[in-house]
Amino acid sequence: MEVINTIGRRKAAVARVYVSTGQGNIVINRRPIENYFSLPTLQYIVRQPLELLGVVGKYDIKVNLDGGGFKGQAEALRLGIARALVEINPESKSQLRAAGFMTRDPREVERKKPGRPKARKRFQFSKR
C-alpha cells in the first residue's frame, strides 16, 4: 500500500498525516506519541478513529503537527487520521461520521477590534 496523506485542522493547529501499512506506530514530529502527548486523554483522542474501526495495529502513522495548543493539536490529528482511514476504506465513512470524527470544528478565535481591549470586551464606562 502506498502512503496516504491528509490534513486535519482545529483552531490554529494543523496536522499533516501520512498513513502506511505497518505495526501501529504513531510518530509525531519525529517523536513517539507517548513522548509528544504525555496526557493519556490526548493519546486516547488521537487513537479514537483507529479503535472505532478496529485497526489499531495495522497502520503506521507519521505526523507533522504545527500551531495551536496540545488539545487542538490532538483533535486536528484525530480529524486527519479519520480522513486518511476514509481514503483507505470509503465504507467506514458513515461509522466515523456518526461518531463525529469527520466534522471539522469551524470555531476560530475572533479578532481584536480597534479601540477595545479584546474582541468583545469594552473599557469600563465612566459617566463622570
Structure description:
The termini are far apart. It is built from four helices and five strands. β1 and β2 form a beta hairpin. α2 packs parallel to α3. The protein has helices spanning 33-36, 40-53, 70-88, 93-99, and strands at residues 4-10, 13-21, 26-28, 31-32, 59-66. It has a five-stranded mixed β-sheet with strand order 1-2-5-3-4. The mean pLDDT is 94. The chain is α+β, with helices and mostly antiparallel strands and 128 residues long.
Mean pLDDT: 94
Q: How far apart, in Å, are the first and last alpha carbons?
A: 73 Å
Structural class by secondary-structure content: alpha+beta
Question: How many β-strand stretches?
Answer: 5
Largest sheet: 5 strands, mixed
Which regions are unreliable across 5 or more consecutive residues at pLDDT < 50? none
As a percent range, the share of helical residues equals 25-40%
Give me the strand/helix succession: EEEEHHEHH
Rg (C-alpha, Å): 18 Å
How many helix segments? Answer: 4
Q: How are the strands of the biggest sheet laid out side by side?
A: 1-2-5-3-4
Strand residue content = 15-25%
Per the principal axes of the C-alpha atoms, what is the gross shape?
elongated
